[in-house]
Each structure stands twice: as C-alpha cells, then as structure tokens.
Design goal:
By secondary structure, this protein is α+β, with helices and mostly antiparallel strands. It contains 3 helices and 7 strands; from the N terminus they run βββαββββαα.
Length: 147
C-alpha cells in the first residue's frame, strides 16, 4: 500500500545522528523513511504502550489519561516528537501510537498535537490510507521543511 516508504525497526538503536544532543536515547520502535536513505524519520511509532488519551472526556476535562502509565506513554511520545522536530527543522511530524489492536495517528507541531480517535487497524483502513497518501505526497507536503 505504500511502496515509496521504508519501514525500519529502530527499537534497538538510538538515533545518534539526528539526536546526539539529547540527554536521553531516542529509540522509537519503527521509523518510516521516504526514500530508504534514513536522513530523516517521517513517522515514529511506539507499540505496546498504554493509551495516553481517553475517548470521552467530560466537558471541560482533559482528554489526556490521568493514569501513571498513560502519563508515561504521553511523556515517551512527546519526547520522541520533540526530538524529531528539533533535530530535523520541520513544521510538523507524525506519530503512530499502537495499543494492542488499536491505533491513533498524531500530528505534532510546535504548538501541540492533533490526535485521532483510536480505531481498530484490523477492521478499518484508515492507517493504510494514511500511509498510502503519505507515500504519494510530495516532500514539501509530507514534512514541510523549514527554510
């Protein structure tokens, strides 16, 4: 569904090229590259995490999970997005958060994040459609490099 993209298992290796200035290791489970050159990760994925978000927050309540494990997941995905945005001079970045058979797509920028509702990637085609469109987008649309 996305032959233009390379999916690389990066869970065992810290990104020392782009993230050497950080005091922590940046090791997302999978990185997605547009041209197999590994010069900049377009997407990072964290698997087997606890959901950092809740589905139906009450009015005037945060949609961020208030559990310790939810906060841990939020800290991990936020640190990865922060490292990616600060090391690669992009206007935005994407993360895929997988919790068992459910997934969320997150678009990060310097103001915050937009988070989709969780959906079952075995039942819905949203994730495949996302990668299909991302793989066919021009580099300018895909990652919007800052001048």
């Amino acid at each position: 569904f996305a032959p233009q993209l390379s999916f690389v298992n990066s869970s065992g290796n810290a990104d020392l090229t782009n993230c050497s200035v950080f005091t922590f290791n940046v090791k997302p489970d999978v990185c997605v590259y547009a041209d197999a050159t590994s010069h900049g990760c377009d997407i990072s994925k964290v698997e087997d995490a606890h959901d950092a978000f809740i589905k139906y927050p009450e009015v005037d309540k945060s949609f961020v999970s208030q559990t310790d494990k939810g906060f841990d997941t939020l800290g991990q995905i936020t640190s990865y997005a922060s490292a990616q945005l600060s090391a690669q001079y992009r206007t935005h970045a994407f993360s895929i958060l997988i919790i068992r058979n459910r997934v969320r797509i997150i678009r990060w920028d310097r103001e915050g994040a937009i988070v989709t509702d969780a959906f079952d990637y075995n039942q819905e085609s949203h994730l495949a459609n996302f990668f299909y469109c991302l793989g066919r987008a021009s580099p300018a649309l895909r990652v919007s490099i800052l001048p």
